[in-house]
Specification:
Structural class: mainly alpha
Number of helices: 8
Shape: elongated
Helix content: over 70%
Distance between the termini: 75 Å
Strand content: under 5%
Number of domains: 1
Number of strands: 0
Length: 167
């Protein structure tokens, strides 16, 4: 179904106003956003549906890359997805930053990627850089050898038992 026809059907469903129709409209527009992730106008339409449903975090999610966005919705989105990496995943952006249609979207995506990289680097820096002790390696090696010997002994015993049955 062409984009404009799908948007028209979604608008009709939103106009009806009942919950089932609004949910169908959300599904239609979300499908369009999944198919055309670079179209900011479709993302803004999806945000409108979420406003009708009373979900400001989701409305902020879909207008995050837009020129004009509601600061309360953006804050709700950032609270719902506290880490930059989680926000990047939630935005469902596909492709490179320079493929964004507006300078604002490119700037926000680049900033979010940088923030996610810094968060990851901070987590890596905070991870203790410990080496495994020789004692622990020795215990694991001796345990693995013991288990292997038990397995082999069991196989030999089973083979001897089966040999006695056959003869």
């Amino acid at each position: 179904m062409p984009v404009e026809l799908t948007l028209h059907k979604a608008a009709e469903e939103l106009h009806r106003g009942d919950l089932a129709s609004v949910l169908r409209a959300r599904q239609r527009v979300a499908g369009l956003v999944g198919t055309y992730p670079h179209r900011l106008d479709l993302r803004e339409r999806l945000a409108e549906v979420y406003r009708i449903l009373g979900e400001p975090a989701q409305a902020g999610r879909w207008t995050y890359l837009s020129e004009v966005r509601d600061p309360d919705e953006t804050l709700a989105f950032e609270r719902a997805y506290r880490r930059a990496a989680a926000r990047l995943v939630a935005l469902s952006w596909q492709g490179r930053v320079d493929e964004a249609p507006t300078e604002t979207a490119r700037t926000r995506l680049a900033s979010l990627y940088l923030e996610a990289r810094l968060e990851l680097q901070h987590q890596l820096d905070a991870t203790p850089d410990e080496e495994t002790s020789w004692g622990a390696c020795l215990v694991v090696m001796v345990g693995g050898t013991f288990i292997l010997l038990c397995f082999l002994l069991g196989m030999v015993t089973l083979a001897q038992f089966l040999w006695k049955l056959v003869t």
